[in-house]
Each structure stands twice: as structure tokens, then as C-alpha cells.
Amino acid sequence: MAKAKTAIVKANTEEHIRARNEKMILKAAVELFSRKGFDGTRIAEIAQVSGLPKANVYYYFATKQAIYTRLIESLLAGWDKALEHISADREPREALAAYVAAKLEYSRKHTSESRLFANEMLGGGQFISRQQKQHVRAITRERAAVIQGWIKKGKLAPVDPNHFLIMLWATTQFYADFASVTAVTLGKGRLNGADFEEARKTIVEVVLNGAIAPMEPAKNSQRSLKIR
Amino acid sequence: MAKAKTAIVKANTEEHIRARNEKMILKAAVELFSRKGFDGTRIAEIAQVSGLPKANVYYYFATKQAIYTRLIESLLAGWDKALEHISADREPREALAAYVAAKLEYSRKHTSESRLFANEMLGGGQFISRQQKQHVRAITRERAAVIQGWIKKGKLAPVDPNHFLIMLWATTQFYADFASVTAVTLGKGRLNGADFEEARKTIVEVVLNGAIAPMEPAKNSQRSLKIR
DNA sequence: GTCTATATGTTGATAGAC
DNA sequence: GTCTATCAACATATAGAC
Fold first, then answer.
1. Which of A119, A156, A214 sits opposite B228 (nearest CB)?
2. Residue A53 CA to C12 C1' — how many Å?
């Protein structure tokens, strides 16, 4: 009895330690990979940032690529959720505004993951499996179909759904991925919550209503709800 | 006389060789840096791709960073030009459409340079000098002032000029920088001219007129020229 | 200008004591 | 589970013969 209990306690502790250390390694790794890419990141750096000796990193992950692949996996999983806002049963104006807000929020809270994926895309997507690519394509198609449905109902201008989605993707991720230069452009040291809010307002306003002023300019961002 | 002439010929040849080799090195380097970043790129790779022995690369460039810095320099120089389209003496509709077209074209023709800069931004802009950052900020401010002028004249919707510029920047660069995943999203192996043209149309249409359909939907992308 | 050989340090990964 | 010591391979950069 006593022996068995000890074994369980020990197992729990070991599991706990494993969970904690893996988490620390992954946290350090995503930050480094996101800034320097796969080839540019050294295991020694990951070890240093996570506060573990290099050999311990190898104890939890067989290879450098195993860490990287794990991070890509968890990122793609998190992405499906953001696109759920674009659903056929909502009004396009509301759905698109919600999507932009959610995506900006996500990219702000998961900056490193977002950058990691950007880095992976720049590198040509070498570490994304064929299966994962098919998945990305499938969920994009689903949402493009929703947009096409809105267009057919006359609720949305007749734009190419795929390119429209890419536009939304591009604008909402830019702030997180390229924060360093965005901050310089805005004349700031660092982006804060107010900057993201201003970005959200501008993106929603332009995407929904366009930049060209109507004949009788309105004062707020809801103008076209009123004048149309 | 004969001796002097020989010396001149030799110097010309040497200059020519130098120019040619430096060009090959820079061409190979921009491609590699753009895909793998600074730390991820090896001098041996640059040498291999440019068809020169590694030691020759060091003959023309003292350090790896010297190559990288040179590339950043030439990229920033090429950028100023694209922004010139946004000038106060043009109508916003025409100027913005021209800018989007020019920027897309530029990013398509200089894909590697564009990606290199994206990579540099992901890395936090470590290799961009303070002076270069100030330059970026200065030219952005100029163009933001032009946009502000359009808004004051009632020609443009009252959006934040800086964020509006960032939107244009994001949408026009996405295709070049993230071509690998964009192609997957569009269900293609590779992006071609028609894809870029469709992207241009979509971006211009959405940025100028917005995505929400007007009461009486028009059939072409010039719709708001007619109904407004 | 070209290129072989090499100095000097760093890398991903492992062996094995604790 | 932890960590020192270490390996073979590879990195940036240089010396010096041609």
C-alpha cells in the first residue's frame, strides 16, 4: 500500500515536472523561433531562455524540429477558431467586424505564435505538412463559400472571396508580426492597447465602407448604416 | 604608353570582375537572407549559390553583416519611389489605385528584397540603423499629411492616415512575402500574373469602395464612380 | 583576383555520472 | 529527472601560395 502510494505520488510529481518543463521550453522556443526562424535559433539559446541546461531540452524533445513541429501544430489549432466568426447565419457587416476584432486580439495576445507562422511562411512553409496545408485550404474554402453566399444575396460587393479573406488576414496580422516597424511608423517606441483599437477601427471602417468619402460625409464609423 | 594602356585595361577588367562578382554575391545573398534570415543564412551557402568559393565572398565583403546591411540599404532606397504616387496634387481615387498597383508590381518583381525586409521586421529590426528608422518615419509622415489633406477637403473618409497607410502596406506586400501560403489558400502551386491582377482589383475595390454592397449593386469595380 | 588550407569558435546531439 | 563533459560536424573568418 505505502509503496504503491509512493509510486503514484512520484509519478504525479514526475508528470508535473515534465509538464512544467515542456511548457517552459515551448515558451522559450516560440519566442526565439518567431524572431530568428528555424535555422537561426540555437538549442543552447532555448535552454538558456527556459532556464534549463541544454541536455535537459534534449531529454524532453528528441530534436530541434520536434519542438518546432509541435509549435506549428498548436498554432494551426488556434487558428480555426478565429475564422468561425465568418458564418453564414450572421449579417456580413457584423460578422466581418467581429472577425477583424477577434483576429487582431488574437494576434496581439499570441504575438510570438503569429510571428512564428509568418517566419515559416517566409521560409516557404517547409515544415508544414501536406496534411496541414490541405487543412488550411479547406477552412479557407469554407469561409470563402460563406462570403460568396453573402455576395449572391446582394449583401456584399462582388469581390473575389479568396483575395478578400487574404486582405483581412494581411491587415490583421501585420501589427503583431511587424510590430517593430509599425511602431516606428506610428512614431512610438511600442504599440499599446489604444494603437490596436485605432487599427481595428480603421480596418473595419475601410473594409466595410471604403476610404472614398461619400457626398455628405458622416462623423462616425457607422456612417454607411445611415446613409445607405 | 603601351604600359599605361595595359594598366588601364587591366583596371577596367578588374572593376568589371568586381562589379559582376559583387552582383552575383548580393543576388544569392538576398534570396537566402529573405528565406532564412540573418542568423539562418551561412556564408558557405551564399558562396555556393553565387558560384564562388567561400574565400572569394570574403574577398568582396569583410563580414556577413556587410552583405546584409548593403541589401537593406538598397531596399529602403527603392521604397521611397513607390510612395511618390501618393501626392497631394492627385485625386485620391486615382492616386491610391496607382499606389496599390505600383506596390504590388514592385513586390512581385522584387520578391526577395521584400521578404528580406519582412524577415528583418520579424527579427525586430536589429540591423536597421537609427537613421534608417527615422527616414522611414519621415516619409510615412509626409504621405500621412497628404492623406490628411484629402480628408480635410472631404475627398476621403475620416480615417487615421497612419493606420490607413499601414493597411495598404500590409495588403500589397502579403502576396510577395507569404506567397507559399497564399498559393495554398488559392489552391494553386504558384502565383501567376493573373493572381496578382485579381489581387490588385480586389484590394483597390475594397479600399476605395468598401465591401458592403450598396442598395443597388453595380456590376463592375468602378461602381462608385457612377453611383456617387 | 583566385582559391586551398586552416585557425578558432559554435552547433546539434549524446554518454554517462549523479 | 538533472547535468557535466564531450563529440563530430560545421560556422565565420584568415593566411598565404598561386
1. A214
2. 14
B125–A213 C-beta distance less than 8 A: no
* Averaged pLDDT of chain A: 88
Amino acid of residue B226: K
Residues (pLDDT < 50) of chain B are 1-5, 216-228
B74-227 placed in CATH 1.10.357.10: yes
Give the confidence band of A208 by pLDDT, cuts at 50, 70, 90.
Answer: very high
The superfamily CATH assigns to domain A2-61 is Homeodomain-like (1.10.10.60)
Q: Which candidate from A121, A165, A175 shows the least CB-CB separation from B178?
A: A121
Query: What are the start and end residues of each CATH 1.10.357.10 domain in chain A?
Result: 74-227
User: In this predicted structure, what is the pLDDT of residue A7?
Assistant: 54
Q: Does A208 touch chain B (CB under 8 A)?
A: yes
Task: Return the residue in A32, A35, A36 with the most chain B beta carbons within 10 A, the one to mutate for interface testing.
Answer: A36
Inter-chain CB proximity B185 and A166 less than 8 Å: yes
Rounded to a whole number of angstroms, the distance between the first and last alpha carbons of chain A is 77
Cα–Cα distance measured from residue A142 to residue B221, given in angstroms and rounded to the nearest whole number: 25
Q: Which residue of B has its CA nearest to A159?
A: B202
Concatenated DSSP letters for B73-111? Answer: HHHHHHHHHHHTTS-TTS-HHHHHHHHHHHHHHHHHHTH
Query: Does residue B166 contact residue A174 with C-beta atoms inside 8 Å?
Result: yes
Give the model confidence (pLDDT) of B68-109 as tens digits.
Answer: 999 998 888 877 777 889 999 999 999 999 999 999 998 999
